[in-house]
Specification:
The protein has about 375 residues and is an alpha/beta fold. The chain is about 40% helix and about 15% strand. It contains twelve helices and 13 strands. It has helices spanning about 25-30, 50-60, 70-80, 95-105, 120-130, 145-150, 175-185, 245-250, 260-270, 275-295, 315-325, 350-370, and strands at about 35-40, 90, 110-115, 135-140, 155-165, 190-195, 220-225, 235-240, 300, 310, 330, 330-335, 340-345. The protein starts with about 25 loop residues before the first helix and ends with a helix.
Length: about 375
Amino acid sequence: MARKRRTVRSGVEKLKPYEPGRPMSLVRRELGLDDVIKLASNECPYPPFPRALAAMKKAVDHVNRYPDDNATFLKEKLSTFMKVPVDRIMIGHGSNELIRLLAEVVLEPGDEAVMASPSFVVYPHAVKITGATPVEVPLKEDRHDLEAMLAAVNEKTKMVFVCNPNNPSGTFVGRGELESFLGKLNKNIVVVMDEAYFELVTDDSYPDGLDYIEERRPIVVLRTFSKVYGLAGCRVGYGVAPGELVQAVNRVRDAFNVGTVGLIGAIFSLDCREEVAERRRLNAEGLSYLAGEFERLGLSYIPSQTNFIMVDVGDADRRVTNALVKGGVIVRPGDALGYYGYIRVSVGTPAENERFVSALERVLDSERVGLEA
């Protein structure tokens, strides 16, 4: 009897699917709730900027046509905005797609890619898809341990990921330590600097990855319109990379990978610099409020430079998360992110932040009563 042939490629069944935050619509339906807030997915709590939104509404009239496959006008706008050549820019269906595509064009079976852990869960997933091996280096005091990452590099290493600021810890690599790291790293290794939260950082020691792209090494800087610009639902990411990598990514990406409405929204959002600054201020105020409330409640947390914060709730992260959801407040359990005992909460509007704190206090009080019973 002929041996049954495998339908699914070896190794795929071992991949862990991405666990997203639960959609508000499903929580409303499942729990019969009318008022639900979502603070689980690091989204912007505010809508797209007015001028971008107006342009997007007009663009809807033309979605019967395919979008510009080359994203010509967005690339030209980004070129002026970032002061980099157009041919160094790549556009993706969110920066997630660019992470996967970069792995596909750089890595082969037997190669290795070094990254921090816990960090963005897409990195090891993208590496495993290629048949290469992710080498995950534990964080040190919730920050990238760059010396340990250097020690993990060997002749098989083709790529290194630096999530800056890091998701899920919210911490960042400073300018001096990044430069020291790059100075010691083999110059043939592709360094992917993921700066999804770039616009939200307020610390002056935070480095701009674009300052390093002209050095004689393959450095990639990834950013997104999903955070401060409020376009998470449009999925528009972008990157700056050596021309050779940009060309390779364009060879393997899907045609028309970013839709017309998203492209238009991104183009018009880049002009809204004052609005970006205001959202950075609101986010910083939200982080400060949450940190202060955690201190009042006697909870440990990780200081953050992003639009989310990790707070320690002991060994009850899933129970606390589920109890909060039942009250209409969606947050992320830390165990899904490699932070057992924590929950991750995104910064919302002031009213949403206050509602979360009130709900959290009630849930923790209930937990304590249950432990004492």
